[in-house]
Design a protein that fits this description.
It contains 15 helices and 17 strands. With about 475 residues, the protein is α+β, with helices and mostly antiparallel strands. InterPro entries: Alkaline_phosphatase_core_sf, Sulfatase_N.
Length: about 475
């Protein structure tokens, strides 16, 4: 992959986690300063729709079931066509009115078992009763569908294919053949779904969780290999671009944490892979790019690849000029979860700035699509909503300004109540790449605050976003 592509060494997330990242990717601008996990908005620009106006056909193949929940149901419809593979995690796929709960309880570790209906864990154990052979695994089916698209359309002009797998997301469920190389000797019940939070499991349990992750990554690696084989078979390298990346990382015990969403956005979560093959830049194959980039840059890049213009609201950069040696337009990049810290890196330092009190901060969601990940906004939230005048990126549309309420569906999952860590920290990546030892450096922190305020201002962040982080003194300078 690296020999065929340019490897981007400083590629970062933007809005976190899954659907916020996809909104960044489709629209080319960060959204976590205004909104938590939610749908595409009526005023959003989506790169597949812009491409369609220029005659480029787009197709999505995915097993990412969050697209079909309340908080993601407007994304896949932006493509010309889509293929949805069922069965991942808590996807409400297979129906069992009276499951064999006692048998299933013996099969799975208690930490990843539930009999509660409309629960990801209970649905997962039901789904897995129907995933037995390699061909049954959703990620395998996703790549099979993507390769079928290539077999049918490889010689056609002007198309974009997005092959998107939920794996290696938890639970780390891979065919047995991929687990053999990582056998830990574990003789307990199935243990492949870590909690979100502090590590408190016994060492052998931790090793089994990690081993199942390694097996899932090995599966993904094999599937990516099939795609590269298809590029060879159809001779696509000469006229077809290929972009390989992800939405975020995952902790496997680093910093004494599992997963994401509960802790600082450490490098293992924020600093993600990106490979870009552009056949018009074949001389760059095998090179590495150290320019700062992030998820939102993908939208501009896909438009650039197809010769389409960027709308005014899109604030991302195309990656293609960076391959040609131009400097990044990002002197730093922002990233974060709605309601948590605002994080910034200039590639040398990372700075994670939290409000003094997450629970008492003044914060609002700005939306015309009031749904959370798998629920509507609570009536108590909407009862206090106000109509906010149009923002510069809403194309004249006013917005609902909805106070964040502790009873909302997102509050303790992707909102202010989710965080175990809430301490403002500064790290020097050159001397401490593992972010083990925060530093005190008033000059660097001052510079990061100025950069943060300037970038938030350019992203049209609402006034309270500066107030909650005590950035008002820096906002005046940014204006």
């Amino acid at each position: 992959m690296a020999r065929r592509s340019v490897t981007f060494d400083r590629h970062y997330v933007g809005s976190m986690p899954c659907m916020p990242a996809r909104r960044d990717m489709l629209t080319g601008r960060l959204n976590f300063l205004h909104r938590s996990w939610g749908p595409m908005e009526p005023f959003d620009n989506a790169f597949p729709e812009i491409l369609a106006r220029g005659g480029t056909y787009s197709h999505l193949v995915t097993d990412h079931f969050h697209y079909w929940e309340d908080g993601g149901a407007t994304y896949h419809n932006r493509y010309d066509s889509y293929d949805f593979i069922r069965g991942q995690e808590g996807d409400p796929w297979k129906a069992m009115v009276q499951p064999h709960w006692e048998r299933l309880k013996e099969k799975y570790h208690e930490a990843q078992f539930s009999t509660k209906r409309r629960d990801y864990k209970s649905q997962n154990v039901i789904n897995r009763e129907f995933i037995k052979e390699d061909k049954d695994f959703p990620s395998v089916q996703v790549f099979d569908a993507g390769l079928a698209f290539l077999d049918e359309n490889a010689t056609a002009e002007d198309w974009l294919l997005q092959i998107e797998t939920f794996d290696p997301h938890e639970p780390f469920h891979a065919p047995a053949s991929f687990k053999e190389a990582f056998d830990t000797g574990w003789d307990g019940p199935i243990r492949d779904w870590p909690r979100y939070g502090r590590v408190d499991e016994l060492p052998e349990e931790c090793e089994e969780l990690r081993a199942n992750y390694y097996a899932t990554v090995a599966l993904c690696d094999a599937l990516l290999g099939k795609l590269l084989d298809a590029f060879d078979r159809h001779d696509l390298w000469k006229d077809t671009a290929l972009v390989v990346t992800t939405d975020h990382g995952f902790l496997l015990g680093e910093h004494d944490f599992w997963a994401k969403n509960r802790m600082n956005i450490y490098e293992e979560i924020a600093h993600i892979p990106l490979f870009v093959h552009d056949p018009r830049r074949a001389d760059a194959a095998g090179s590495r790019c150290t320019a700062l980039t992030q998820t939102a840059d993908l939208a501009a890049t896909f438009l650039d690849l197809h010769g389409a213009s960027r709308p005014a609201e899109m604030q991302s950069q195309s990656l293609l000029p960076l391959i040609d040696g131009e400097a990044s337009s990002h002197s730093a990049v922002l990233y974060g979860y709605f309601g948590g810290a605002v994080n910034i890196t200039d590639g040398h330092h990372t700075y994670h700035r939290y409000p003094p009190d997450l629970k008492s901060q003044e914060i609002y969601q700005y939306t015309l699509m009031p749904t959370h990940i798998f629920d509507f906004f609570h009536p108590a939230e909407l009862a206090k909503a106000e109509l906010e005048p149009a923002m510069p990126f809403t194309k004249g549309a006013p917005l609902l300004k909805v106070p964040v309420d502790h009873r909302s569906a997102m509050y303790d999952t992707y909102g202010p109540g989710a965080f175990i860590e809430n301490e403002t920290r500064l790290y020097d990546l050159s001397t401490d790449p593992g972010q083990e030892n925060p530093i005190q450096n008033a000059e660097v922190e001052e510079r990061m605050c100025r950069l943060m305020a300037e970038m938030m201002h350019n992203l049209d962040a609402p006034a309270e976003a500066f107030e909650r982080l005590s950035l008002d003194p820096y906002l005046a300078a940014a204006k």
